[in-house]
Each structure stands twice: as C-alpha cells, then as structure tokens.
C-alpha cells in the first residue's frame, strides 16, 4: 500500500543521480587521471605531484591558502557569533534589520562585494583619505594587495555563511536553560561559556565548514584584493590551466587542494562529534 | 556582602553586553558599509576610484550604457542562470522528494551528501575537471556546457530548500489524501506541491543568484563567444580598475534588492535561509 513514507520512492532521485554521475563524478575521475599523466613523453606516474612538492613552492602556496582560510574562519566566528546572539534577543523589527543587512550582501555578486574593498583599501580609498585628512599619515598606506587586507575582505564576504547556521542553532536552544543557569547564580559570561556555547557548537561547526570551504576557494577576492603577487591555490590552478595550458600539473594541484580541503573539513566534523560527547556529559 | 555580589553581577552582565554589542555592531557595519560605498562611488565625476568622490556625475552610467561587452555578458549570464535553474528544479525537486520523505535510510542519506557536495568542494577544481571532461567528450565550450556545469554547482540550493520545506509537511496529510482515494499524482498536485511550493521557489531563486554570480565554473567553460558577467567584471577590474564596474555593480545591487524584496514579500525568504 502506498503511504506517505513510500509515495516518493528513491528512484525519483535517479535522474539527478545519473546527471551527477556523468557531469560531476566522471569529470572528477578524469581530473585524477590527467593528474597522473607523466608529461610530454606519455606514461603515468606521480611526477606531477613530485613536481608540486619538489621545490617547496607548492607546499608554501598550499599552507598559505589554508592559513588564510583558517584566519578568515576565526574572524567570521568572532564577529558572527555575537551578531547571532544579538539577533536572538532582538525584538522583531531588530531581527528584520539584521536579516536585511546579512542577506543583501549574501545575494549580491561576489565581484561587487570584492570591488567595494578595492574602493575602501586602495591608495585613494576611504581608509587612506580619512587617515590623511586627519593628518595621521603623509603617504598613503599600502592596504590593497596585502594579507591583512585580504583577510578583512574575505571576512566580510563570508560572514553571512557563518551567521545563518549560528542564528538557526541559537534559536533552537530553549531560553529557560539560560534562565535556570542565571537563577542558580551563574553570571552572564559563565552562562555563556557553560550553557549557550556548548549547545551551539553544531551551528558553529556548520558555519566554520561553509566559511572555510568558501574562503580558501574565493578566487575573485583572492586575486583582486590579494593581488597578483600573492599566489594562492586557486590562482595557481588557474595560472597553470589557462595561462600555461599545463593541464596535468593544474590537475595535480587541484587534487592536492581537494584532498587538503576535504581533510580539514573531516577534521572539523570529527571535532563536532567529540564536542557532542563533551556536551552530553 | 550581598550588595558586593550584586555589583559584580551587574559588572559581569554589563561587560558581556558591551563585548557582544560592540562585536555585533562591528559586524553589521562591516556587512553594510561596502555596499553603500560602491553605490556612492558609481556617481563619481572622477576618472579613478577615489573615495570620497571629487564630484557627482552620471558619466559611468553612460559608459555602462555604451559598454556592449558588459551587456552581452549580462545577457549570457541571465540566459545560463534561467536555463540552469530550470534544469536544477526539474532534476532537484524529485530528488529532494525522495530524500525528504524517505525513511532516512542509508541510500537516501548517501545521495543527500552526494548532491550537496558541490557546496564544499573547491569550485575551481570542478571547473577544471569539467573542462577536461567536455574536451575529452569532444564538446566545445558553449552555453550548453555552461548550463550543465552551473546546474551541478547550483542544484544543492534547490535540494536544501525543498527538503527543508518537506520537513514541515505533515505526512498524515499525504496519508489521508491517499486513503481517500486520490492518486499519487493528484496527491502531489493538491497536497504536497501547495505546501512545498514556496520552498521550491526560494531554492530556485537562490540557485539562480548562485548561477548568475558563479565564477569558478564559468572561468573554465566560457570563451569570448559565451562571456559571462562576473568574469567580464573581474577581468575589467584586474586589468585597469575600470570605474564602469562601479555603475554595473550598482545596477546589480538594485537588481538584487528588487528580486530579494519580491521574494521576501511573496515567500518570506529570510525565514527559509536558516
């Protein structure tokens, strides 16, 4: 007999599964295959990977990319968490305002958001003209094409991705848990660290996953605010694949990047399982 | 003794509120200010991205109206976005139905993870993989290859929103419809679809915006004949910090505000994004 549980059988997912198998899984397998091509002479092997790690450049680019992703994620957490707390306790009109301010940038093109940072951080940008008119500096500071500038821009671009899962998780924490903590004499900080924070870890980790994955691969922001001098994994792939047409090496860089990102996301997920165990105790 | 305890309690509360309030204020400022700055600088009369602008003019909007490259790229992006969204809905909604109302068995959970994985995979790696795939298949880059690539990376938004809407649907409604003799199709049309329709629409909207804004896939699957708007704007900025991009950006911001306003009005989009 057909019931709600059986009315939509798994075979409804078959068309998309086939589509994904053909246009998502097969391309990734081909990418792996191309990365194993040895080069002009033909044959297969790990020579592209050996080349990536040989001179230390590849390892430096990879670690710098992951570090920038990590720093952006921490900055987003430090700003996104308080915003989510304020959102939770805000009156309805306050929530609407915060929602508007968070969602509009999320829906606005990344090129547009990144472009704003060129205007802000440029030699004639907002920061430099303000500091100069206040007489604090004589010559414009170099803010664009620096790592600090890139982190600030990436934080703004990815902040909504941190905020949304956090706000969702915080909304599901029953407020009477915090009331009970306060009634039992715990202060605001203690209640936050002992009650609210542990219960919100799933949302925080979901936010960290999305923010980190987006920040390391944010090609546009990285190239426009970081500049051509700062080589990161996405621009390394682009340079090798498009400018130099060296597909086997570009594929190897892509595979290393893919593996590194997945390893870190798996680590975040493992931390989540660990934290779950702690929160239950 | 007790008054001292109250003092430290008040201080504790105050310092907590001050810290969270300051950081949240900073976050809101950081989120809102850049958009306003783009709008302001697009009306500059100067030749550079100087801020504050030296004067007011519409010259960069005139330059935008003359820029056939940006308009051509915008038309392509619009077409690819619409086609990719249509394909994503056609493929994604049935898949979401199987995942959302399935009994949570291993197969549907694995499919769910598979379909959502483009969200966390480095986009550029998939872009290169697609280019290698289509080249091996003997297909030149075209609107078709762009639509296929965009569908893969944008279908997760349709799935996520549809599954979320299904979670709100009471299975008893479907059961009663079926036991009252309605066919599967009638039940879908009269019971399921009306209650998940706005979830599908929200997913389609976000899917379209994601496609319209996509760079990593477009970068590899595009050529001069199929230029895409975000890639065009990126190249204009990389080369020479063209102020016309400010006018184009403001036009895009206006487009986003209008679209999001409509979605909020009819679907309550903001409630669905969490």
Q: Outline of this structure?
A:
The complex is a heterodimer of chains A (281) and B (274). Chain A has 281 residues and is mostly helical.
Topology:
The complex is a heterodimer of chains A (281) and B (274).
Chain A: H1 14-35, H2 47-54, H3 57-89, H4 92-107, H5 110-121, H6 126-133, H7 147-171, H8 175-183, H9 188-199, H10 201-216, H11 219-226, H12 233-243, H13 247-280
Chain B: H1 2-41, H2 59-66, H3 68-101, H4 106-116, H5 123-136, H6 143-167, H7 171-179, H8 184-212, H9 216-221, H10 229-240, H11 244-267, H12 269-272
Helix pairs in contact in B: 1-11, 2-11, 3-6, 3-8, 3-10, 6-8, 7-8
Q: Strand pairing plus helix content of chain A: what structural class?
A: mainly alpha
Question: In which range does the helix fraction of chain A lie?
Answer: over 70%
Any idea of the CATH topology of chain B? Answer: MetI-like fold
CATH fold description of chain A: MetI-like fold
Uncertain segments of chain A: none
- Order of helical and strand elements of chain B: HHHHHHHHHHHH
Largest interface: pair, residues per side:
A-B, 99 and 103 residues
Report on this model:
The complex is a heterodimer of chains A (281) and B (274). Chain A is built from 13 helices and no strands. Chain A is globular and about 75 Å long. With 281 residues, chain A is an all-alpha fold. The two termini of chain A are 44 Å apart. Chain A has helices at 14-35, 47-54, 57-89, 92-107, 110-121, 126-133, 147-171, 175-183, 188-199, 201-216, 219-226, 233-243, 247-280. Chain A has a single domain, classed as Orthogonal Bundle (MetI-like fold). Chain B is mainly alpha-helical. Chain B has a single domain, classed as MetI-like fold (Orthogonal Bundle), CATH 1.10.3720.10. Chain B is 79% helix and 0% strand. Chain B starts with a helix and ends with a helix. Classes of the chains: A mainly alpha (281), B mainly alpha (274). At the A-B interface, helix 1, helix 3, helix 4, helix 5 and helix 7 of A face helix 1, helix 3, helix 4, helix 5 and helix 6 of B.
């Amino acid at each position: 007999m057909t019931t709600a549980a059986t009315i939509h059988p798994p075979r409804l997912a078959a068309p998309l599964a086939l589509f994904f198998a053909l246009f998502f899984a097969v391309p990734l397998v081909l990418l792996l295959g191309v990365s194993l091509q040895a080069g002009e002479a033909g044959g297969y092997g790990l020579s592209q990977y050996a080349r990536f790690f040989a001179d230390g450049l590849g390892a430096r680019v990879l670690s710098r990319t992951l570090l920038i992703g990590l720093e952006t994620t921490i900055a987003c957490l430090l700003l996104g968490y308080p915003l989510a707390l304020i959102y939770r306790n805000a009156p309805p009109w306050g929530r609407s305002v915060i929602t508007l301010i968070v969602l509009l940038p999320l829906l606005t093109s990344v090129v547009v958001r990144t472009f704003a940072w060129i205007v802000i951080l440029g030699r004639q940008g907002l920061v430099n003209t303000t500091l100069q008119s206040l007489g604090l500096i004589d010559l414009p500071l170099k803010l664009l094409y620096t790592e600090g500038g890139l982190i600030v821009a990436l934080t703004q671009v990815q902040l909504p991705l941190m905020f949304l899962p956090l706000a969702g998780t915080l909304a599901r924490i029953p407020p009477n848990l915090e009331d009970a903590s306060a009634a039992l004499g715990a202060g605001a900080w203690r209640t936050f660290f002992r009650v609210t924070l542990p219960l919100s870890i799933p949302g925080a980790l979901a936010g960290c996953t999305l923010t980190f994955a987006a920040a390391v691969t944010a090609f546009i922001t990285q190239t426009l605010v970081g500049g051509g001098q700062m080589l990161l994994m996405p621009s390394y792939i682009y340079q090798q694949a498009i400018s130099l047409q060296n597909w086997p090496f570009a594929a190897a860089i892509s595979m290393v990047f893919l593996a590194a990102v997945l390893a870190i996301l798996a680590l975040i997920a493992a931390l989540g399982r660990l934290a779950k165990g702690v929160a239950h105790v | 003794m007790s008054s001292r305890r109250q003092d430290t309690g008040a201080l504790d509360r105050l310092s907590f509120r001050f810290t969270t309030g300051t950081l949240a204020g900073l976050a809101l400022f950081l989120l809102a200010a850049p958009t306003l700055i783009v709008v302001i600088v697009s009306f500059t009369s100067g030749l550079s991205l100087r801020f504050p602008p030296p004067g007011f003019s519409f010259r960069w909007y005139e330059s935008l109206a003359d820029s056939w490259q940006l308009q051509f790229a915008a038309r392509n992006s619009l077409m690819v976005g619409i086609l990719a969204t249509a394909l994503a809905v056609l493929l994604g909604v049935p898949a979401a139905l199987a995942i959302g109302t399935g009994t949570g068995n291993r197969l549907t959970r694995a499919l769910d993870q598979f379909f959502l994985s483009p969200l966390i995979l480095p986009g550029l790696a998939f872009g290169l993989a697609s280019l290698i795939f289509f080249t091996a298949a003997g297909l030149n880059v075209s609107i078709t290859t762009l639509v296929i690539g965009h569908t893969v990376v944008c279908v997760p938004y349709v799935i996520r929103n549809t599954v979320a809407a299904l979670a709100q649907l009471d299975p008893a409604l479907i059961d009663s419809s079926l036991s009252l003799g309605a066919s599967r199709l009638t039940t879908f049309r009269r019971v399921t679809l009306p209650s998940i329709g706005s979830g599908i629409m929200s997913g389609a909207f976000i899917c379209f915006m994601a496609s319209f804004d996509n760079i990593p896939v477009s970068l590899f699957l595009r050529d001069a004949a199929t230029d895409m708007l975000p890639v065009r704007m990126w190249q204009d900025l990389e080369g020479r910090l063209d102020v016309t991009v400010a006018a184009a950006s403001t036009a895009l911001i206006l487009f986003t505000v209008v679209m999001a306003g409509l979605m909020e009005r009819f679907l309550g989009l903001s409630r669905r994004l969490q």
